[in-house]
Amino acid sequence: MFPSPMELLRSHLSRVRIPEPTNRIYKSECCISFDTPRSEGGLYVDLSSFLAFGKEYVGWNYEKTGNPVYLRIQQRPKPVPEDRPLKKPTLLAIGVDGGFDYQETDYEETHNIVILPDYVSLPFPSVELPEKVRLAVDAILIAEGAERKEQLAAWTAEKKKVSAYVMNLQQINSGVVVPPSGWKCCKCDKTDNLWLNLTDGMIFCGRRNWDGSGGNNHAIEHYNETKYPLAVKLGTITADLVGADVFSYPEDDTVEDPLLAQHLAFFGIDFSSLQKTEMTTAERELDQNTNFDWNRIQESGQEVEPLFGPGYTGLVNLGNSCYMASTIQVVFTTRAFISRYYEHQSLKMAFAMATSDPTLDLNMQLTKLAHGLLSGKYSVPIQEKQEGVPPRMFKTVIAANHPEFSSMRQQDALEFFLHFLDQVERVNSGKPELDPSRSFKFIIEERLQCPSGKVAYNKRSDYILSLSIPLHEATNKEQLEAFHKMKAERKLEAKDIDRDEIVRPRVPLEACLASFSAPEEVHDFYSTSLNAKTTAIKTANFATFPDYLVLHMRKFVMEEGWVPKKLDVYIDVPDVIDITHMRGKGLQPGEELLPETGPDGDVEHTHLVASEDIVSKLAAMGFNYLHCQKAAINTANAGVEEAMTWLLSHMNDPDIDDPISHRSDAMELQFVDETSVETLISFGFQEDVARKALKASGGDIEKATDWIFSHPEASASADTDATSSGMQAGDPGVPDGIGRYKLMALVSHIGTSTHCGHYVAHVHKDGRWVIFNDSKVGASVDPPKDMGYLYFYERIDG
C-alpha cells in the first residue's frame, strides 16, 4: 500500500519550517538559474531553506539536502484588454504610482504543495492541509521576497532640500520689473533655458551642455562675478510654485525655496497667471531616462536589428546598473570566462560545490550568470524584443560589503571592472590555473635612471593600461583652429553654434600609447649612488603581454579648483595594433645598477618618497593620507591626476591600509643566500618561490619550506614590486605572448562624470559588431569606436 498524498506530507512535517521575520525568503527567482514563477513548470520554494528552484533544478536540491516539501508558484498571463491606455510617467521612478509604466502583462498566480522525489502534488489553499504547512505557506506568500529587499525595484530622485541661502537672501531693488513673457538673455539672443537671478532680477541663459546645446553659460558667469546664490528657471513657474526649478550655485544643486512667492513678487512677477513652457531639471532627467536620446553611442535613430540566441542575452537594468551590465557583457565574451564558467562548469557542478546558501556563493552566481547569458535559454523574442535576465543575486554577492557598488547609484565602469577581477581572483585563489582574471593581468617594467647614469628596474602588475590623451597630438589641428575662430566670432555676435558644426580633437591611439612609454621626470627620487634625493628619468614598458589588453582612456581630468572635466575628444582607434616595440628589455649590457647601499655604507635602498605636494592635494579632497602616499609612490610622483587614477583603481586592495615598506624586494633579494636558494630548488620548488620564502623566513631553510607549504598561492603571485637585480622575463601567474592585438569590444560612456550618465557595450562577435544596451541586444550599424572609455583588445595568436 502506497501512502496517500496527505499521509506522505504528514510524514515529512519535521522538514517543514515556518519562516521567521529574519529569514530570507526567495520566491521570485531560482537561485541556480533565471527561472521565475512565469517559467515553464513554475518556481519551487523549499519549505525548509526558503530557497527557490526552477523545475529543472529542484531535483538537485532534493539530492543535496533531502528536503522533500516545496511550494510551487506558477504565474500565467491574463488576457490584456485592447483598449488599455498608455500612461506617461510624471515621476523619475519605477514601480511606484506616477513612475514608469512598462505596460506589463497581468498574471494569475496559482499555488501547489509538491513532495519530491515523485512530485506528488496537493492543492493550496486547502483546509485539509496540516496547520504547520498552511502557516508556512501563508508566511511565505505575504512576506516581502529577499530579492526585493536586497535589490530595490524602485528608484526615485532624491527630494529637494531647502537651500541654506533662502531665509537670508538679500534682494536688490534696482528698478527691474520682469514681464510675464518675451524674456531674453541679457548677454545674448537666447530666448529659452533662461534663469532669473533672485538677488538682482537679471535674466541669463543656462549652461552649455557637453554636446554644445543648451545655453551660453551666462547665468553661471553672472554668479561667478557677483556670488548671488539663487536663480529660478523661467518657464517652470506656475501657480503651483512647488514645481518651479530653483537652483543654488554655491550648493550646486536644485533646491526648494519656501519663500519663492515673496522673492518673485519683489520683481513684480504674478506667478498665478504664468503657464509652464520649460522642462525642470528633474523633468529633463526623466525625459532622458525615458527616451535615452544619446544618439551616437546608443545608435539612436538607426534601424538596429534585434538579435536573439546563445551569447545574445541582455541584462535588465536594476536601476543605474549599466556600468555593471556593459562590463559583464564584454567579460563573458572572452574565452577565459566562457571556458571557466560555462563550458567547463555546469550549473549542477557549481551548485554541488556551493555553500548552504547558493545565493551568496560567488562561484555559483558567476556560473548562473554565464549560463544565463550564453545558453540562449532566456534570449527569445517577446513582441519583437527580449526581456533579458536580471543579475540581482550576482550584484548582491559581487558588491557585498562594498559601499558604492551595493548602492543604487551610478558607478564608474572601470572601478567595477577592477573590483570584479579582484573578486574573481580571490574566489579562485587556491587554484590559480583556473582563474580567468589572469587573462587580463600583465607586468609593467619601469626603468629609472638617476643623474649618476646608474639604473634601477621595478616591476608592478596591473589589469588595465591607463592612458592619458595628448591633445597636442590631434590630427585635425587646422579644423580645430577654424572652429575656435568661428566659435569666438559667434560669441561676439551672440549666436549659437549648431551641433553638426562642432569640431572635436581627433587623437590617434598610437599617440596615447606613445605617451605612456615616453620618458618622464620623477622628482624626490632617492639615489643610493648620490646618497641624496634627486630627479630621475622613468620609462615604462611591458614585461609581459596579456591575453586581453584593456585600455582605459583618461577622459576625465582635473581643472583649476579640482573640478573634474570630461575631455570632449575622439580617439582614432585601429582594429589591429602591434605593441611588440613596447616590450621591456630588462638590464642591458653596459648598464650599472644603483647600489643597495649608499656611499657611507648605510643600507638605503633605491626608493621613491611620496611628493608632499601631491599627497596634500589628494588629502585635501578627503582621501586617506596613507592611501595618498601610496598613490604618489606607485605613480612615481607623476602628478595629482595620475595619483588619483591609481587611488580610485586600488581603493579595495587588501593591503591598501598596510604601512609603507621601506625595504624593497630588490634589497631583500640581494641578501638571500644563493646556496639556500639552490637547496630549495633541489627540493623541487621554483626559484622565485624559493627566494620569496627565504625572504619571509629570514633565510632559514626549514622555516622557508614551511612557508611555501602554507602559501600555495605564492607561485601565482606577480607582485614583485622592485627588482634592481636581474629581472625574470615573466611570472608563473601571468600569461605572456606576442604583442599583436585585435579590437574585440569597447565600453562607451556618455555624461559629465563616470558616476552619472549611461554606459553601453559594443562587442565584435560572429563576424559583426553587436550593441549591448542593458536588455537591448542588436546588430550594430555604426559602432562608436572613436568614443570609447574602455577598449578591449584580444591577442592575435600565431
From TrEMBL:
Documented EC number(s): 3.4.19.12
GO terms assigned for molecular function: cysteine-type deubiquitinase activity; zinc ion binding
CDD domains assigned to the protein according to its UniProt record, in alphabetical order: Peptidase_C19B (cd02658), UBA1_atUBP14 (cd14295), UBA2_atUBP14 (cd14388)
Protein's recorded name: Ubiquitin carboxyl-terminal hydrolase
Top-level lineage group: Eukaryota
Binding site for Zn(2+): 185, 188, 205, 218
Annotated catalysed reactions: Thiol-dependent hydrolysis of ester, thioester, amide, peptide and isopeptide bonds formed by the C-terminal Gly of ubiquitin (a 76-residue protein attached to proteins as an intracellular targeting signal)
EC class: hydrolase
Organism: Musa acuminata subsp. malaccensis
Free-text function comment from the UniProt entry: Recognizes and hydrolyzes the peptide bond at the C-terminal Gly of ubiquitin. Involved in the processing of poly-ubiquitin precursors as well as that of ubiquitinated proteins.
Residues annotated as catalytic: 322 (nucleophile), 758 (proton acceptor)
PROSITE patterns linked to this entry: UBA (PS50030), USP_1 (PS00972), USP_2 (PS00973), USP_3 (PS50235), ZF_UBP (PS50271)
Family membership noted in the UniProt record: Belongs to the peptidase C19 family.
Gene Ontology biological process terms in this record: protein deubiquitination; proteolysis
Taxonomic lineage: Eukaryota, Viridiplantae, Streptophyta, Embryophyta, Tracheophyta
